[in-house]
Amino acid sequence: MVITRQGRGKLCSLERMIDARILADHLDRHYAVRGRLEPIARGRADNYLVSTDAGRWLLKIFQPEFTPERVEQAAAFIAFAVDAGYPARAFAPTVDGPRTTRLDDRAAVLIPWIDGETADWHVVADDHTVGEIGALCGWIHRIGAAWPRASALAYAR
């Protein structure tokens, strides 16, 4: 069985195809997770819903320009933000400890699933939602300013 991806809600050219057996082996070897895989037809990365008896996960395989080192740095920041109370999910550590792996020569992570709906691109339904988004943006910026490794972030250079 081959799983292909779609991006931004529209069918895109099939640049990459990853065999489901490769994905399943990767999840088992690096995270000791076994489950059913479903491609998610949104986002720029290759995203898969992983359903297990114990819960659901997001397997995210980043675009080639996002190196494992860069994604590991983002994982550290997200863990810091979650520890500060920000409503996100930290990337799951592998059985060996790091939060980032390589799959199909790209950085990959496993994230606990967050239930909810993803809004369409550039669509905000009401003023209340705009206010919530603004509050979250302000909060993550304050957390970023407090992060001890902020000066090491790729965008800071």
Characterise the protein shown here.
It is a single chain. The chain has 157 residues and is α+β, with helices and mostly antiparallel strands. The chain has one domain (2-119): Phosphorylase Kinase, domain 1. Helices cover 31% and strands 22% of the residues. The chain contains 3 helices and 7 strands, in the order ββαβββαββα. It has helices spanning 20-31, 68-83, 127-146; strands spanning 2-4, 17-19, 36-40, 46-52, 55-61, 101-103, 106-112. The strands form 2 sheets. A 5-stranded antiparallel beta sheet has the order 3-4-5-7-6. The chain has a two-stranded antiparallel ribbon with strand order 1-2. β4 (46-52) and β5 (55-61) form a beta hairpin. The termini are far apart.
Primary descriptors:
two-stranded antiparallel sheet; 157 residues; 5-stranded antiparallel beta sheet; 7 strands
Q: Strand-residue fraction?
A: 15-25%
CATH topology name: Phosphorylase Kinase, domain 1
E-strand count: 7
Instruction: Give the structural class.
Output: alpha+beta
User: What's the pLDDT, averaged over the residues?
Assistant: 85
Q: Level of helix content? A: 25-40%
Shape: globular
How are helices and strands ordered from N to C? EEHEEEHEEH
The strands making up the biggest β-sheet line up spatially as 3-4-5-7-6
**Main beta sheet:** 5 strands, antiparallel
In a nutshell, what does this entry contain?
It contains three helices and seven strands; from the N terminus they run E-E-H-E-E-E-H-E-E-H. It is of the alpha+beta class. The model is unreliable at 1-15 (pLDDT under 50).
